[in-house]
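To assess whether the prediction recovers the assembly geometry, we first specified each molecular entity separately, as shown.
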Amino acid sequence: MNRLTQWKSRLALFALVVGPGIITANVDNDAGGIATYSVAGAKYGYSLLWVLAPTCFLLVLVQEMCSRMGVVTGKGLSALIRERFGLGISFYLMIALFFTNLGNVIADFAGLAASAEIFGLHRWWAVPIGAFLLWHMVIKGSYRTVERVFFIACAFYVSYLISGFMAGPDWKEAIYGSIVPNTTWNSETLYMIVGIVGTTIAPWMQFYQQASVVEKGIPLKHYRYSQLDTVAGAILVTIVCFFIMLACAATLHRNGISISDAGDAAMALKPVAGRYCAGLFAFGLMSASLFGAAILPISTATSICEAMGWERGVNRKFTEAPHYYSLYTVVLFTGAAVALAASKAMLIPIMLFSQVVNGILLPVIIFFMLRITSDKTIMGTHTNSKWFSMVAWSGAIITASISILMVVMTLIQ
Amino acid sequence: MPPVVFYNLSDLLGCPVRYVDEKRPFARLYDIGGSTATAYPLANALEMTPRKGSCVEFLPWSAVLSMTASETVIRRTTESAPISDFWARRDVLDDQVVDVSGAQVLRVNDVHLIYSDNKLIFGHVEIGLRGILRRLKFEKALNFLTQWLFDYTIKDSFVTWRHIQVMSPGGVPGGLRVDKLSDRLADIHPAELADILEQLGVKDRQALFNSMSVETAADALEEVTPEFQRTLVSHGEPGRVADILEEMPPEEAAEVLRDLGPDAQNIINRMDGDAASEVQTLLSHEEESAGGVMDSSCIEARPGDTVASILERIPKLTEVVEVYNLIYIVDENRILQGVLSLRELFRAPPSATLTSLISHELITVHPETPLKDVAREFAKYGFQAVPVVNADGVLQGVVRYDSVLSQLANFLND
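The predicted structure of the complete assembly is given in tokenized form:
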């Protein structure tokens, strides 16, 4: 085979395997994530950019285990946890996952409301229409359409790149800030760092990515393409984070404007960075919110049904998988309703609660993942190598301590 | 008649085990092994988590003197435990099993055991909400609540063990009775088999697929989604996969191979000559064109043949061609001259030559004709199949309307 055709066939294989990693990583930049990155940029300027590279590394470490488990076993993470650790543990884990995911969905609908209002569409229009469209798309469409829509939606994140450039950042300072940890250390900075890592590596992502790897039916021999997909996703998400922080640092931080969420950021960008920059930022927020609000309810329903042994899947009919669709519908509409009904002041305790559950859940799940990926009877020859194990355990311990730290700090504040 | 007692596996596990001549238990029950020699398996061994000072982990069932939900009493024995076909906790509880009668994959919430005459029999698996609630210790509270509120008792839902196939006993040889499984599979509709395959993990899925006969495997492979076709085929042994693909209609086989990348060639090389070249031809055409879905075999005749001679040949040909009710008339260079239907042949005098019967205008497509245009031809003329000719008019094959329909159905799904 000549080199060209060889490349072509490699590319074709990659195209078949690609998706789960990139989609998961991009949904990760949902409304909650964008809020955290904007606040970090506005408050600390370029000085926290260095956090992104190690976070990216941790993200790859965790997500790689998921897609490996998915490819090797062909089972979702919640099924593996149920089989390995029993019903009791899985049940309580699923309850926690339900609430933290619901929190994320609420944040996403709140983000949708905020971004729609920037474009002059009232929240009482935007949120119900958004929720109904998403619901309809999943109930009526097949998984392929849904996935394609999501994949295209990833492209909307380019709007952050453009608004990052338009904000006219000081590149020298930005590069310095992303390499050198030149931060004044105090509890507030620590809280911010913890927040960045915490929103970037969230428990639903492990369940979601593994489930989509399984659904894609990626064969073991093409696993390295799947690895590439994971890495590409993590790098993309980091680039987007970088530009969000950059845009906010170059404009809001320089002018000393403080913000508390992503909607604020878009509004505040208008006078300092121009209408188009703010518009792009708000557009990014809107697509991210929709994206997150679409995927999180699906992921919640899939994970819970898998653990409980109920029929599941977007390509089944309502009557074939009643638990699945009920869960999906409840999460989606409860999220929309709470985001609509709750005032900004009421949303804060809800978000805090969700973050606390998130923080407790993540170390537990990473611990289970490490146990499963080290188990020869499950993973066969694809257990963690000695080197990987060492790195993974230390990475997991860092992530776990960060999320526990986050819980403690949230509770103190 | 000896008393019959029902136990839930979840109630037995973790219960103390003691020797008949001692007061203190020496271990807790960890797992129960079963033998599938009978339709309802019998427990044949116990596994225990020993307490301090004891190291007995496995015991044969013959050592059991009595078993209750509060303790198991054992006599001292030197026998070692026999090999079990499955272990209830490790392979069944919380795991997936296949329900052969309902053709579905189930996750087991609990196992019902029947204890009688000092034998322990595996009776049912519990798959409903009640099993979940029992194990979470919510059963009584919730039942009370639903009784009180709605006068409703949460129902048990069982599947009898006779219909249960235990999957993937973690690496124990002889565990998965694939031989037995394949007889039981014979009655399941391929679409349901496909559904089962899609729900299982990689190991179980491949084990099940490998245990099927080549014919069954081909039927099931046609039914699974393209993603699962890809995994099943690329995890399979190329020789067997080639045999399975030979069983499938060539255009379906080509469809499977199309997404396989470099492995496809490896499999085609192992296929039987005719089938291989047919698939190869299909693969060389664009997927969504007439050439990509056509059958290369059809009934061909010469203009000079008589009606009687062709009618005589047809019954035998139906074994190899899908389109048997249309006869394609070609000259010595295989250039298509006309098409006759079986009906026209039946009506014609037996001694008539085919040339004299060809009347209507010839509708053909080219291998590169897009499927949408082929579909339009079908809609316009109501054919069952349309011949494919190259630029010189040489017959290449025929496209059946159902091949086009199945391709179009894919578009409808999207």
